[in-house]
Amino acid sequence: MNVVLFITYSFVIFLxxxxxxxxxxxxxxxxxxxxxxAIDGLxxxxxxxxxxxxxxxxxxxxxxxxxxxxxxxLSLFFFFIYKNHIKSEEFFLFLxxxxxxxxxLIISKTNEDFPYYHLPSSLQFVQQKLQFGLGNLNHxxxxxxxxxxxxxxxxxPKIEIYLFNFVGFVVQILFFLFxxxxxxxxxxxxxIKNFLILITLVFLSKFTRLSEFGTDLPGQLIxxxxxxxxLKMIFNNSDKNKxxxxxxxxxxxxxxxxxxxxxxxxxxSLIPLFVFYKIKNKIKFLNYFIKxxxxxxxxxxxxxxxxxxxxxTGCLIYPLKFSCLQNFAEWGLSNExxxxxxxxxxxxxxxxxxxxxxxxxxxxxxxxxxxxxxWINNYFFTKVTDFILLILxxxxxxxxxxxxxxxxxxxxxxxNKYFYExxxxxxxxxxxxxxxxxxxxxxxxxxxxxxxSFPIIFFLSKNKYIDEDSLNKRFKILLFITLIIFNVKNxxxxxxxxxxxxxxxxxxxxxxxxxxxxxxxxxxxxxxHEVYIVKDGNMCWATHSTCIRNLNFNVKDVNxxxxxxxxxx
Length: 569
Known about the structure:
Layout: H1 2-29, H2 37-56, H3 63-82, H4 88-100, H5 102-105, H6 114-127, H7 146-152, H8 166-184, H9 190-206, H10 217-235, H11 244-261, H12 270-278, H13 282-291, H14 293-313, H15 335-349, E1 353-354, E2 357-358, H16 362-367, H17 371-402, E3 406-407, H18 416-436, H19 440-461, E4 465-466, H20 468-498, E5 521-526, E6 529-534, E7 547-548, E8 553-558, E9 561-566
Parallel strand pairs: 6-7
Antiparallel strand pairs: 1-2, 3-4, 5-6, 8-9
């Protein structure tokens, strides 16, 4: 029964997301002739985030809110189906991908950060309306992500918290749906086709289970799609100039969405800046974009992102100190806390700290670039090299598969200047990433992939023609093998997790729902406000909100809104 409920809710929520996406395309972005079901899904998810952000200011996202929200989404889906707003071949691809990747969704062990702040933060949005100073209670509450708001809208009868990791699966499905549509149903130049195929094979091979995603991967997958649109604008001869406004508007929207999932993705804002530099009629675009409804949606989404960061920490973009407004927020984090947390994040990203170690002279190592040696030894020769080897292995297999259908006698005029321009953009983003937060999970998977793969893709596409039918047939063979490996790995993992005894951590005692630790907690009243303090150094997990780990604070009530203040005594 749980399995049927799990799959049914997952599918129905997808339809609701598509419904909001159809509405976004029809009323906001207004490029109906450029319909793409995967993009509609991402736009729908973005709109759900914005709606959820606004409603959370006034109320928690309980059953009634979420049933109403997704009831409207489902109604919109069927309305636009009636209006023939969906292409049957795209929907068939969605159904196929949904079924083929479903094993990825079934997990017992969640991401390491899930019990620490993903689950408690999402539950906070369900059970409470907007509160201020949450960052003073737990470090995890300092780190806002739009994913937590979207999670809270999936809190529905019977399923409750067990779709709080569903956003990663949704974005993964939409990402591969986008690639499939572009590969099989759209006309693209060879370089774009090679890029689409290679990223499909690499990312499908790498990310095989949902617990790897957290809040780190969805934003990177969304940005990867925006990079495809950059390539389409540069290399699709039939699309040049006439689709500039649509491509740039969509890229800005996708980057804004990714930025809302994790603030460090701001480094990828260089992509729309590059595209803006490349378009011919800049004034025409600015006139269109600033007057568009899409601009209002993006502006509101950034405003709500600032609001939730500010309400929690007193900073517009946590942990950037220059964005912190302690003079306007009595609950704001102290300068000492901000300095400590910035050092903590940086030393962790640069491998000077880890789960079981922390070097004493971290600041000196960071300031003198001595951290690079530790990063190479502790991180590069483990996780980064593994990822690079996977990219090179898949690229080699792909090259060997298509080698004998490449036609070197015919010349495809790919201008070197396009390569140098785009690769300079990639290297600039890579350098910003490397010198600030060089961990793959922190915006790094995509930029490392681009830095390694783009020269290979350009080489495979330069001065060569290829029969598209033959390419599609051979790609299908590789894809079929990759999907078999994907599902075999997941089925083996699921079987192993089912065999974990019910009394052990991460067991599947409530299949197919992920494992949740039952932690000891105590209900306390602080200034007539109920909080729940966890005992024995536990993480909050699914403890009722507001979950705390110490009592060093006071609660102030201002017009029905709770403000948590550090107790200075």
